[in-house]
Amino acid sequence: MGIQFKQVSKRYGGANSPLVVQGIDFVVPKGSLTTILGPSGCGKTTTLRMIAGLEAPSGGQILIDGVDVTHLGPSERNVSMVFQSYALFPHMNVIGNVRYGLDVSGVHKAEAQERAQKSLALVGLAGYEERLPSELSGGQQQRVALARALVLEPSVLLFDEPLSNLDARLRRSMRDEIRHLQQRLGLTVAYVTHDQSEALAVSDQIIVMEAGRIAQAGTPQDLYERPTSAFVAGFMGEAVLFDGQSLHDGSVQLGPLRLVPRHAVTPGAARAAVRPEAWVVGRELSGGESLPGSLSAELKQWSYLGSFVELTFDTELGQVFVVSPEVERDWRIGQVLALSLPGRGVSVVAV
Ligand SMILES: Nc1ncnc2c1ncn2[C@@H]1O[C@H](COP(=O)(O)OP(=O)(O)OP(=O)(O)O)[C@@H](O)[C@H]1O
């Protein structure tokens, strides 16, 4: 069953203070990984802390594996949390940190030692038992924190921005390791992040939160390819919004461009969220020429970024930002090119 939220809300302080979580419902199925994604202040950490029992909800019900845990304390829930700051005991060596939870819950010494060693091996740190946290890299410290959470064999494992103190390369490898371990051990995980690429990479389900509510929940592909609001589209992929008109035949007119949305939209004002990689840059146009079905665009700026180029154009729709794989092309500031939107990467969202 995993984790279930039923109409859960939260306010800090008295009855007049605002609800920072506003009656949300979701399920994290057993053995799967859900990320809670959203901008700063949207209520992600509060939601995670309510799963952990570190905050009490102001209303609603929280179930873990079908059991109502709404009023249980953190130690009564069989939940472990890995924090952004690692929260290791600095004076204790690695094995001491990992077995701490077992020691305080009265597990026999020999068993605690054996389980801690197994857990360290799981995160690739066998042989580091005697080191102090200060003698480890950031990535290794985060692995110790992970081993310390895993050793308790929790029914739910929670991560609060676990990678934000690591550099970009390490972040990617730790992210993949967490996902690999979660799948191998069949762990039920809720994972808070504000980084959409991290969420896309590790999740079975992504829940996007906006101001205390769930803006949209679904698979990574659902959210990336089929955002239902401008907020989600913008949050998931640097999409730029353009105002247009939806017509009676179901298409949407965006300046000279005609799009066919995946879902029917009512005729009238419409808005399209276009990701930078959705644009295709066609041929150069000569003085005043225009191509039917394409947007004339003057190149204002471009940057080479190794495997792709970033291009900024002026067009009748305003500034258009494009990411193109054509790194070898002879890009020149001032040239006028034909842009088109052949398909993927465009979503028509509510106005
Ligand atoms: N202990 C607290 N007392 C009062 N208000 C709080 C407390 N903790 C959080 N808040 C408020 O609740 C709202 C949600 O905070 P929360 O930390 O859950 O957001 P978040 O999405 O995790 O943000 P961030 O990414 O910045 O951590 C914010 O407006 C915040 O100021």
UniProtKB/TrEMBL annotation:
This protein's source sits in the domain of life called: Bacteria
User: Where is coiled-coil annotated?
Assistant: none
Q: Which GO terms describe its biological process?
A: quaternary ammonium group transport
Quote the PROSITE patterns the UniProt record gives. Answer: ABC_TRANSPORTER_1, ABC_TRANSPORTER_2
Report the GO molecular function annotations.
ATP binding; ATP hydrolysis activity; transmembrane transporter activity
Q: Which Gene3D superfamilies match?
A: P-loop containing nucleotide triphosphate hydrolases
The record's annotation in Pfam families points to: ABC_tran, TOBE_2
**Protein name as annotated:** ABC transporter ATP-binding protein
Q: Which organism is it from?
A: Limnohabitans planktonicus II-D5
